[in-house]
Design a protein that fits this description.
Length: 203
């Protein structure tokens, strides 16, 4: 769901981008027509990762915290805040081989620089998107029944615990009500006895 939400938000951002192009009278390049293709394979890549993470999160709750750390590390290894040409050696090779950097670089070329991606970049973009989606789909389908059984068991356990808690609370409320009734009854009896004693004294 988050992937599709991100795509919708991207669509809104593109509307604002087009408005800015019109306001500042910037002539768009024809290479921008290739932008939806890059987004399509990026969505495939993201869906594959999402399927794997969603399946793993059902069985390992701590995957959420590990994913946050890895996502931050991945962000800084994608050459978003710095030019990749400023790097060298193994570090540059690692960033260039990063699939997210490949998508980012393709978008920069078709939108900002008016260039088409190279054949190598196109091949990487397609392979990363298709392979990621296929692996994610296979993992999700293989574990789908286990996920359903696990979620049903978890829901039944939760419902049973809530039912037990409610019954326990009701028992406590009944015992408390009985205790209050006994206290009131004893007070009434004591008051009646005192009234009878005073009447006998007066007589």
């Amino acid at each position: 769901a988050r992937v599709y939400t991100a795509v919708v938000n991207l669509g809104y951002s593109m509307v604002a981008y087009v408005v800015m192009l019109i306001v500042f009278r910037i002539t768009p390049s024809w290479t921008m027509l290739f932008y939806p293709v890059v987004v399509f394979f990026l969505v495939l890549f993201s869906l594959g990762i999402s399927y794997v993470l969603a399946t793993a999160y059902v069985f390992f709750g701590d995957i959420k915290h590990l994913y946050s750390v890895l996502l931050t590390l991945w962000l800084y290894c994608s050459a978003i805040f710095y030019p990749v040409d400023s790097l060298s050696g193994f570090v540059k090779e690692m960033v260039v081989e990063n699939p997210i950097f490949n998508y980012i670089n393709c978008v920069r070329k078709v939108v900002m620089w008016g260039e088409m991606p190279t054949e190598t970049e196109l091949l990487r973009m397609i392979l990363w998107g298709v392979i990621s989606y296929l692996i994610g789909s296979i993992v999700f389908k293989m574990k789908k029944n286990q996920v359903i059984i696990f979620m049903l068991a978890l829901m039944l356990m939760t419902a049973g615990y809530m039912n037990y808690t409610n019954n326990h609370d009701n028992e406590n409320m009944i015992l408390a009500a009985l205790g209050d009734a006994q206290l009131v009854s004893s007070n009434v009896i004591e008051s009646a006895n005192e009234t009878v004693e005073k009447a006998e004294n007066i007589a």
